[in-house]
Each structure stands twice: as C-alpha cells, then as structure tokens.
C-alpha cells in the first residue's frame, strides 16, 4: 500500500493551498491561538495534524507542537515490508520534510528523538527527557503501542529474538540476518503482522527457510473462518513458507553464546532456527497517562476515552492504539485515523455543527499478503458470534433478529437459537477463490463477509454494509452476477416498435422523417412527428434514434445554439469569456452567422444569461433588456392573466415575524393572492406591471430584497430546522442553508438552481432531489448534486462524503462554476451530469481532484461573481430610466381625458397647432358580423377574477384558442394615427417594444433595425394580452419560407443583398407562438397554423411620433377590444364540481370553512385580523392598511 493512501486526501495539497492563501493575504495573522501539543508522531498523530491543519488553515485558531520519540518523521508503518527492498527511511515518509516547513509560520513545530516523561495537568505542561517543559492548552496523546514480547517464555531475551514494529526493529533484523546466512528463520504469530513479517524475512534472502508458527488451526483467525484461513495456508505454502499450525512456543533454546538455536513447543516437539520474530500482538502505551493520574484500563489496556476522545482530565485527549474506547483498543490504523478525524473536526467545526462522536469503527481490511488477496468486511463473524448490530426496520418495526419475550423461555429450555443470519458461500479450490457473504434472514441486508483470491467487489460491498440500506437485488447476484436482460437500445427495436405512446409514433416514422431530409434537428423531429411532445418520457429514446440515424447517413449531429450561431452554449460561453464580449452586437459580429441579425427566442436569453453570469450587469438596461424573457425583463414572474407574481428572498426559509407582517401588509394593500411556495417562500400573485415598483419599494424599505424567482438562477436553499430546534438534528441545516443562499443568490446559470440542506438522514428538506443538496452527517455534510423534480424527476448523486462545514463552499463554488461554464442551454444539472463523459465519476475528478487544473480558476470566477452582487429591484427603483419600463401603456396616463382615451389620440396630437393626419384608406370588404360591446371604460382585467377560499384568482383558461383569422380581417377604413412618442422606443440591436391602448384595444408596437411594426397585443392561443413583452427574432437571410413572414414587397430595409428577405417575428412570452411582424404573410404564426394576429403598418414622422394605420376605434374594439376577448368564468366548467358534491355529501367530521374558527364564538381570520389592525390585541398599536 502506498504512503499516499494513508494521507488525508487534501494533505498533499496543503502547501500549495497555503501559498495561494498567503499570496492573497487571506491567512489571519493576529488571531488568539491556542497551543495543541501532540505526543507521538506516528501514523495517527500525523493524521490528526493533517486534518487539523486542513480545517484550521483559514481560521488560524491553533498552533501545533508535536513531539516524536523516534528519530524519524511520520512514516508508513503499514508498509514496513517494503523497507527490505529500498532500505531508505525517506521512502516511507507520509509527508516530506518540506511539507512541515510549508505550513503557515508558527502553526506547526516538531521535535524528533524526544521522549515525553511526564504530564502536569495542573500547570498544563509536559516535560521531556531533556528537561524541557512545553506548555499546552490542549494535549493530544497519540503514543501508540508496543509489540508484545512473551517475557514469561524462557529464552525470550536471547540474541536473535526480535519484534516487528519499528524501522529500528527492521534495521536490527537486517543486520542480524546477514550473520546467519543459510540458517532457518521463524515467525511466531499467524495474524496480519505475522504474515507481513514472514514475507519480510523471505525477502531478505538470507535464510534458507522461513517458518510460520501459529497456535490456531488456521492463519488470520481474527479475520477469516476455518475454510478461508485454510485456503490461505494452502496458498502461502505453495509460495515457499512453511506453516506450522496448532503450535505453541514452550521455550526458546539458546546456545552457549546466548544466541537462538531452536524452539521447543508445548507438545514436546522442537525445531531448529537461528532467528525468531514475534508478531503476537500489541500493548497500548498508557504508562505516561497513568503517571499523570489519567484513568486507564486494567493491565495496560489503554487510556480510557469518551465518545469525543476526551480523557478523565479536561483538555487532554487520546487517539489511536493507546486509547481504550468501550474497553477496546484497536490495532488497525483505520480506527485511529477515524479518531483523529473526529477530534480535529470537533476542535474546528463544532461551533457550527453538532460535535461528532467516535462510534464502533469499521474493521474491514483488504490486503495482499504473500501475493494472496485477502479481505474481510463488516460484521464478518456474525454467523459465528451473532450479529453485533442489525438494521432497524422502517415504520417503527423492531430490528431484524430481535428476540421476542415469548422466545426467551424457549431459549432457556432448548438453548439459544442460532444467530439470525444466513450465509451465502462460494468456494473454488481450482482458482483458489473463496467468498462468504452474510445476510439478514430475509436477504434484504448485507451484514459482512470475507473474500480470498477475488476481492474486486470489496469497494462496492463495504458501503452497502455501512449504509444499512435494503438491497434491491437478490443475494445470489452477489456471487453469480445479474442475469442479462434484453438490450433496450434502439438498435434492436423493429421498425414497427411504438416509441411514443402519447402520439402513437413508431420507430419507422422517426427514421423516415430523418432519412428523407424532412427533419434535420431533434426539434424538427418533435414538430413533424409529435414524438416527445406529450409526457416527454420517450425523448431519450427519440434522441438515440435521431443520433444513430444521422450517424448512419454520415451526418454530424451538431449541438448548435440556434440557426444564428454555429456554437454550443458552452463554446459560446468560452468565447465570450476569453474575448470579454459584453454586448449583443459584439457577440453577434464576433460569433454569429449574420452580424446584422436580431437573434431569436433561443439564443437571446442564453446570451443574456452568459453575460450576466460573467459580468453581472443589470439585465434591464437598454443594451440587455431585449435579450431577456419576460420574467427577467420585468424582474417578476408573468402569470396567465398578464399580471406578475412577486417573491422576496427568504433565505433558507427563515423569516422573522416583522417580515411576515410586511409581506402581509403588502398583500392586503394591493389585494394579492398569497401562497407558500415549495421552496419555503411566500409568493404574492396578481401584481399589475405598473404596481411592481411600489410593491418592491415597500418590501425593500422593510429590509427585504429580490428573491430572483423570475430568473434562471438560484431560487432557494430549502432547509429543515436541524440542530436549531430538532432533537434529531446533528447539523445546523438552517445556518448552512442561509449562508449558501446568501452566497449564490442572483447568480445566472443555464437553468434554475435549487438547493437543500437537511440536518440529518431523515431528509426533511428533500436535499436529494435538488441541484445541490447537503445532508448532515457526524463528520460534516454529504454533498449531493444533479437532482431535480419536475417532469423528469431524478435522484441526486453523491459528489463528496463527510465534507467539513468549512469545505462545503469551495466544493460548491467549483461545481456551480463548472456547470455555468459547460452546460447546454436550458439544461438542468441532472441532464448535464448525465451527458458529462464519465458522469458523476468525471465530475468528482474535476471538482475534487482537479483533473483539469481549473479548480482555482473556478473558485476565483465564483468569488468575483459573488462579490458583484446587487439587488436588482433596488437598482430599478433608484434609476429613473429603468423605472420607465414598468408602465402598463406608454400612451396612457392620468392627465388624459376620457375623450382622448377613447379616440386613441395623444394629448399632444389634439393641440390645434398639431392636427392629426387626415389621410384615410377605405376598403369595400366588411368584417364578419361581430356583436360589439357597448362602450365602457377600458379594462385591464383580461381574465375574470373569481373568489375562492377567501382569495381572488383568475378564472381558468378556456380549452380552445381564438382561431379567428385576425391576419386576414378586412377593415372598412384605415387612418394613420399618432399613437406613441418615438422616444418611448429606444433603438437597440435586440429590438424594442411597448404596449399602447386605443379605446378598449391593446396594441403592441415594435422597433427593429430602424423600422416600426404594430400588432394586436393579444396572443390568440390563450387570449393573453402579452405580445409586447415577447422576444423579437429573425431567420437568417434567405431562410424565410413563403407565407411565414419576412418583409413585404418593396420594403428594402428588410432585404439582404441579392433581394433575399429576412423573416421577422415576435414570440409570445407564455407559450412561444411566433407571429410574423411583416413580410408576405404578416400576422401568421410560424409554429401553430390555427392562430394568427392582426398587424398594422407603422412609421415614425418628423413630429417625433410613431403613426399606426388603424381602423375607427369602434370597429377596432369590436374585433380586438379587451372586453371582447376577456376570459370569463363560465367558459370553463369547474374541474372539482363533482368532487365537491361528493365531499359535501360525505360531510367529513371536524372540517370547517376557510377562515372560520374552530372555537365557539371565534372571530375567524377576517375578524381576528381586523381586531389586530384596530389595536385590540394587547401590545398592539394597530395597523393602517
């Protein structure tokens, strides 16, 4: 085993990390530090130092002094056998000398070849053999153990008797063996250390024969049963080791010079040998502690420690082989390293996390002894001694194997029942393979086992035992393997196989549409065949068929962002990052296929997100506003009636009563519908666009800020209460969640990000279905990534285990930065990880092992982004130019009269010095009969409100769209009307748009590349008045198809060189229906032939107004008026009508109406609230809504 396998994984990186921190001046210099003195520089002592230094390097709370008895730095005692080959102590060092000197100044000092002789707990100091006194604040005893030498055995002190423990022991053995060439050597003890010693003596090649003496009937009796141990004996004998079993040494025969000449056994037999090495066990070194009055176990049984490794004297701890935990000492290195981990954690992390406790250690071992692979894991003797512990059943059941009261009497009369364990055994004497796995009686849980010869499954089986999770495969599969099912790849599917059950799409339908050239992208496939447009469950298979069919045709499957860019999102991100492109114009010129294009609804939000992720400028500024989807454009979530929802930040779900009052006040004042979100926040629905600024102002004035619920960014970090309140909590989940949400808030990413932190394995925060989730463990937090709910739920995967709280942020910084850099557009972390080469394994290599050498850059990128945070709501409120974007209609204000409003004429146009134009165009085609509503004040309620459960919400959408052919409607006459000041539409490379009102009709006016367009505001698909908020897009030159947009004949501004037309459209923000703004068929929907919109000519004039060619207001309102298309409640039948009827009939006991009190004479919600507001509650001063 290499030395590095015993290092803390981060230990070798500490010098580099320290250097980076020193260069950034991030190591605290004037902190109040405690001194930790460590007695013992062995494997456990250095493990503690490594772990403490790693956790304390950014804190600098401690200085360490370590005192080692040997003249060497900490070395790999487990790898002592290799010393016989290289004979260099330095090759065994766990850390080179430079490692110690690279630590922060004063943080680590060591003394070698120095024995601590006494401890004075009163003065808190230790004294060395040289008389030096070293004071301490905390003392850690890691004195280890001595090899046992049987001093009761005659001849034990003869020349040629050795133990196998230290480098000095080996050096003595090497020197002595050189004087006994050709003699026989012997090892007493057939355990792990004995077999190692036997191999070492064989490697010396000085002895003509090496013999192993074992008192039991097989070797490795502490790890293996008789069958397994016997197989090892058979194999090592073939390798030349002579094994004597069931033999006990009675005395050592000594020659006249005091040297070993043979061994006499207790059974009377004897054998010749010139050298004996004892490897029969160890004895804890507790003499130093005993002299200091520290409580120790009887007969040299070690220093008694509690679960936190503390001894009977305050501020003194013991770890490793010298420590006695629950009357046990441990001769393996792994329990000692675990003790070091627990103590280092508690000294540095317990302030923000529940202190860890040392528990029953895992004694699993996997070694190669004399060339034989040997492993034992879990409770490997559960069938012999009975299980130490059994998995608890869920739902409050008893543990498997628990003895019921009725069985105890039977046990007394008939003897105890056999252990509640079943063994599954495999033995192959030809290949020298042995496996025995132990399961609970029902085969649902693996308890432990042992392996000889073939140990490759060891790494998979150990976690199964530790986690105690029910198995999802039969026990037999652990031995014989799983039966191979049919390969479900698309290659084996016949042409008539149904791929999409929602739309009955067969495999042949897909392959035909691809091979005949109809479909050249996965989007084309979905559009042409409808596959994947239902539940979406078939999309992975559809994608596979598409990719393989394209490959079979010799076609490359490209992952381009959209037709405007021949780059993937990741490629485009890197180009923008390297070239520092910060505007849409520069990006289109540098990377786009057409420098003059306005982009589309696919590339614009992606570019907006990338710019925000890299430079974090305000997204509503003129140069970036046209890149944003409606939610980002207005910093709120658009709802189906055209209003918005507002969600302030509630980090970690923690909120004060004062902030609840503020939210309640705002909701009450503006008549908003309120609901608790799945992310533990409060959502306020029904906010009108023109009220957003006022509502934000009230929230921000009360100490709140934007919750970024509208953005493709971090939404929430959900938490349970953890150690804050919960009796089961072992981690401060609220504290961690608040810190993470505060750190990553506002950061734009390819898709929304959700986090969660659970305080224990009960997982109340559902952290394992989040993009990143933490679950507190005794050692810190398990970090999970790549989970999500939604249409395709996915369980997250473990990225890092038992991460100390201090290390959580660097790992998440790297993970999120890498995701932002490399994910595809609108790709959740789940799909992103699935598409990484190597999946989660590759991600671990990149994030934890720095495989690509970019971890420092990823951390810096996140640090820079976090440091540029600002509240987007606040910056809008402060900026007069940004405030202008939050008007319902740019031509409608309180100074206008009713006459002006109904005529659609701006106030400026009525002035006699500026008369409206008189040119009129009349048509002879009358519109179809439409019953025009009586004139009424213009309405903003596009969906009828209904009251339900004490709150108001919009009525349900109708099932059918408005399929009237608006684009072909023939008006009686059209007149140029000055509709909006040109200054309201600020030119931008992405286009600009505003909403205007004329009579009861809402219109959308657009400015794209110097030309104006106008359409109805209503999208007919769901009768939503939102088109002015949509993204503007175009096709590349020459790509417009007849009947689907472009510019009209003679419109030179829309033509490219050679007369090719460019198709221009606006995309509805709700469901992405794309309506042509001009061209051969203006108003046509490019992706839904059933719907269309009315379009109108528009132009700007020298008087500074944009004129639109419109029909008379009465005729316009008759066709497009808001009241005409208002969605009414009676258009859709209530979905729960029948259910409510049945529930009412059952008259469920104990139910009450919403807002009604259970108390007799109780006031109910409304009455109680009014009493509080009026000051009737004790201590209340009343509230004024």
From TrEMBL:
The keyword 4Fe-4S applies. Keywords: 2Fe-2S, 4Fe-4S, FAD, Flavoprotein, Heme, Iron, Iron-sulfur, Metal-binding, Nitrate assimilation, Oxidoreductase. Residues 976-1080 form the Rieske domain. It holds the Pfam family NIR_SIR. Residues 639-699 form the Nitrite/Sulfite reductase ferredoxin-like domain. Residues 1-26, 906-942, 1038-1062 are annotated as: Disordered. Its EC number is 1.7.1.4. Its cofactor is [2Fe-2S] cluster; [4Fe-4S] cluster; siroheme; FAD. The keyword Heme applies. Residues 499-547 form the BFD-like [2Fe-2S]-binding domain. One of its GO terms (biological process) is energy derivation by oxidation of organic compounds. It is an enzyme of class 1 (oxidoreductase). Residues 35-327 form the FAD/NAD(P)-binding domain. Residues 10-26, 1044-1062 have a biased composition (Basic and acidic residues). This is Nitrite reductase [NAD(P)H]. It comes from Viridothelium virens (Speckled blister lichen).
């Amino acid at each position: 085993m290499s030395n590095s396998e015993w290092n803390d994984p981060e230990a070798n990186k500490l010098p580099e990390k320290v250097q980076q921190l020193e260069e950034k001046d991030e190591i605290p210099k004037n902190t109040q530090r405690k001194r930790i003195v460590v007695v013992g520089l062995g494997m456990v002592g250095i493990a503690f130092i490594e772990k403490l230094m790693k956790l304390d390097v950014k804190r600098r709370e401690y200085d360490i002094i370590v005192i080692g008895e040997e003249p060497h730095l900490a070395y790999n005692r487990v790898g002592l056998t290799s010393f016989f080959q290289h004979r260099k102590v330095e090759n065994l060092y766990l850390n080179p000398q430079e490692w110690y000197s690279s630590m922060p100044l004063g943080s680590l000092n060591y003394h070698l070849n120095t024995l601590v002789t006494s401890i004075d707990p009163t003065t808190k100091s230790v004294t060395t053999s040289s008389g030096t006194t070293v004071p301490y604040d905390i003392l850690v005893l890691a004195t280890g153990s001595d090899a046992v030498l049987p001093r009761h055995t005659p001849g034990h002190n003869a020349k040629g008797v050795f133990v196998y423990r230290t480098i000095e022991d080996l050096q003595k053995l090497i020197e002595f063996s050189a004087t006994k060439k050709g003699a026989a050597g012997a090892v007493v003890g057939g355990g792990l250390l004995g077999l190692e010693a036997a191999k070492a003596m064989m490697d010396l090649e000085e002895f003509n024969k090496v013999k192993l003496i074992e008192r039991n009937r097989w070797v490795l009796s502490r790890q293996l049963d008789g069958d397994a141990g016997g197989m090892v004996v058979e194999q090592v004998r073939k390798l030349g080791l002579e094994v004597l079993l069931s033999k006990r040494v009675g005395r050592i025969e000594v020659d006249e010079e005091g040297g070993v000449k043979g061994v006499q056994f207790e059974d009377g037999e004897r054998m010749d040998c010139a050298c004996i090495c004892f490897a029969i066990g160890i004895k804890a070194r507790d003499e130093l502690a005993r002299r200091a009055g520290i409580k120790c176990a009887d007969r040299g049984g070690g220093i008694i420690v509690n679960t936190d490794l503390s001894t009977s004297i305050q501020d003194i701890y013991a770890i490793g082989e010298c420590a006695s935990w629950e009357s046990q000492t441990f001769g393996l290195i792994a329990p000692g390293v675990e003790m070091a981990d627990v103590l280092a954690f508690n000294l540095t992390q317990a302030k923000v996390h529940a202190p860890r406790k040392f528990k029953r250690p895992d004694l699993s071992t996997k070694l190669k002894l004399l060339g034989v692979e040997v492993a034992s894991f879990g409770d490997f003797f559960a069938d012999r001694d009975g299980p130490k512990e059994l998995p608890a059943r869920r739902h409050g059941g008893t543990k498997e194997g628990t003895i019921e009261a009725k069985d105890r009497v039977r046990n007394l009369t008939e003897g105890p029942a056999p252990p509640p364990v079943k063994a599954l055994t495999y033995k192959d004497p030809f290949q020298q393979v042995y496996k025995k796995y132990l399961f609970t009686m029902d085969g649902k849980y693996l308890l432990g086992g042992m392996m000889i010869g073939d140990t490759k499954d060891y790494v998979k089986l150990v976690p199964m035992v530790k986690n105690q999770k029910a198995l999802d495969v039969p026990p037999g599969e652990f031995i014989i393997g799983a039966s191979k099912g049919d390969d479900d790849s698309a290659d084996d599917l016949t042409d008539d196989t149904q791929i999409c059950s929602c739309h009955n799409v067969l495999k042949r339908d897909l392959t035909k549409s691809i091979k005949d050239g109809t479909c050249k992208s996965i989007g084309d496939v979905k559009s042409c065949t409808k596959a994947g447009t239902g539940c979406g469950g078939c999309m992975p298979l559809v994608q596979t068929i598409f990719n393989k069919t394209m490959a079979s045709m010799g076609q490359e499957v490209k992952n381009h962002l959209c037709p405007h860019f021949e780059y993937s999102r990741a490629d485009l991100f890197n180009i923008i990052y390297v070239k520092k492109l910060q505007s849409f114009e520069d990006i289109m010129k540098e990377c786009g296929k057409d420098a003059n294009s306005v982009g589309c609804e696919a590339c614009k939000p992606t570019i907006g997100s990338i710019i925000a992720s890299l430079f974090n400028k305000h997204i509503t500024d003129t140069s970036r506003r046209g890149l944003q989807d409606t939610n980002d454009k207005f910093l709120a979530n658009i709802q189906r009636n055209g209003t918005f929802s507002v969600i302030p930040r509630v980090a970690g779900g923690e909120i004060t009563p004062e902030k609840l009052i503020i939210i309640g006040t705002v909701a009450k004042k503006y008549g908003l519908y309120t609901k608790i979100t799945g992310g533990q926040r409060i959502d306020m629905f029904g906010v009108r666009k023109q009220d957003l600024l006022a509502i934000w102002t009230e929230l921000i004035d009360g100490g709140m800020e934007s919750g970024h619920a509208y953005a493709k960014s971090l939404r929430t970090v959900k938490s349970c209460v953890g150690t804050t309140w919960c009796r089961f909590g072992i981690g401060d989940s609220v504290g961690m969640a608040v810190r993470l949400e505060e750190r990553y808030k506002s950061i734009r990413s390819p898709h929304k990000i959700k986090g969660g932190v659970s305080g224990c394995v009960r997982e109340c925060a559902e952290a394992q279905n989040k993009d990143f989730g933490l679950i507190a463990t005794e050692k810190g937090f398990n970090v999970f990534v790549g989970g999500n709910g939604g249409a395709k739920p996915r369980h997250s995967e473990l990225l890092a285990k038992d991460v100390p709280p201090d290390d959580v942020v660097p790992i998440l910084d790297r993970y999120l930065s890498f995701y932002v850099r490399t994910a595809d557009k609108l790709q959740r972390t789940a799909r992103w990880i699935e598409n990484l080469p190597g999946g989660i394994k590759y991600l671990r290599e990149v994030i934890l092992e720095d495989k690509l050498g970019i971890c420092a850059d990823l951390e810096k990128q996140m640090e820079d982004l976090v440091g540029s945070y600002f509240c987007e709501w606040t910056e809008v409120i402060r900026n007069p130019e940004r405030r202008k974007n939050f008007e319902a209609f740019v031509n409608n204000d309180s100074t206008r009269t009713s006459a002006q409003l109904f005529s659609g004429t701006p106030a400026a146009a009525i002035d006699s010095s500026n008369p409206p134009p008189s040119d009129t165009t009349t048509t002879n085609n009358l519109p179809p009969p439409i019953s025009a509503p009586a004139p009424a004040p213009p309405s903003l309620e596009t969906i009828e409100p209904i009251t339900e459960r004490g709150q108001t919400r919009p009525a349900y959408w109708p099932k059918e769209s408005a399929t009237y052919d608006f684009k072909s409607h023939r008006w009686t006459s059209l007149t140029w009307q000055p509709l909006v000041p040109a200054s309201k539409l600020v030119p931008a490379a992405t286009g600009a748009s505003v909403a205007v009102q004329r009579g009861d009709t809402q219109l959308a006016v657009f400015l794209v590349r110097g030309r104006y367009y106008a359409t109805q505001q209503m999208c007919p698909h769901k009768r939503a008045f939102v088109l002015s908020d949509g993204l503007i897009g175009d096709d590349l030159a020459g790509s417009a198809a007849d009947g689907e947009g472009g510019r009209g004949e003679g419109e030179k501004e829309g033509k490219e060189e050679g007369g090719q037309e460019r198709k221009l459209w606006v995309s509805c923000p709700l469901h992405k229906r794309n309506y042509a703004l001009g061209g051969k068929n203006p108003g046509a929907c490019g992706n839904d032939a059933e719907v269309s919109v009315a379009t109108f000519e528009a132009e700007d004039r020298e008087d500074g107004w944009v004129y639109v060619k419109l029909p008379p207001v009465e005729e316009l309102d008759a066709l497009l008026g808001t009241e005409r298309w208002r969605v009414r409640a009676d258009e859709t039948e209530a979905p729960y009508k029948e259910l409510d009827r049945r529930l009412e009939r059952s008259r469920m006991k104990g139910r009450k109406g919403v807002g009604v009190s259970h108390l007799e004479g109780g006031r109910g919600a409304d009455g109680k609230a009014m009493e509080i507001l009026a000051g009737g509650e004790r201590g209340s001063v009343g509230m004024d809504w």
